[in-house]
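If you are new to this repository, start here. Below is one unmodified record pulled from the training split, so you can see the exact layout before writing a loader.
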Amino acid sequence: MPHTGILDVSFPSDEEVLITRTVNAPRHLIYKAWTTPDLVKRWWPGRRGEMTVAEMDFRVGGAWRYVMVAHGEFEVAFHGTYREIVPNERIVHTEIMETPGTAPDSEEGAVLNTVTFEEADGGATLVSIRTDAGSKEVRDIIAQSGMEDGVREQFEIIEELAASLS
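And here is the target side for that same chain:
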């Protein structure tokens, strides 16, 4: 079991990225931070900018869209569709980074993320994010994107948020 606070990134297959981190907070609070737009706005950009849009039609088949401005310089947007929701346990959704010319409802080039929340020792929660990139090329782009530092920041903020919610 990973220690609280340590982000682990691995590659279970040529097409997958697996990120795990044990967060020192109860599972229902981590899930709440993950599924409440006002809370998502606080953690999703990490410490890299400000989130301007957090649209979530949080139901199976519902769409989501997140937009952030990275330190006031450039806008980054992602969207997708929820495929499976098991409250406090699992969220499966597609994710696509918007590029010029991307239709807001396009799923072309989307990856599939499975986020799981498992109870861990001492009231902590093991969060796992498994990304099926669909190809080794896309997996490598994700792996080399610098996302690891951003995800580390996201989890630090989620932990702080959860403490403020309890």
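Two things worth knowing about this chain: The chain is about 25% helix and 40% strand. The CA atoms of residues 12 and 77 lie 27 Å apart.
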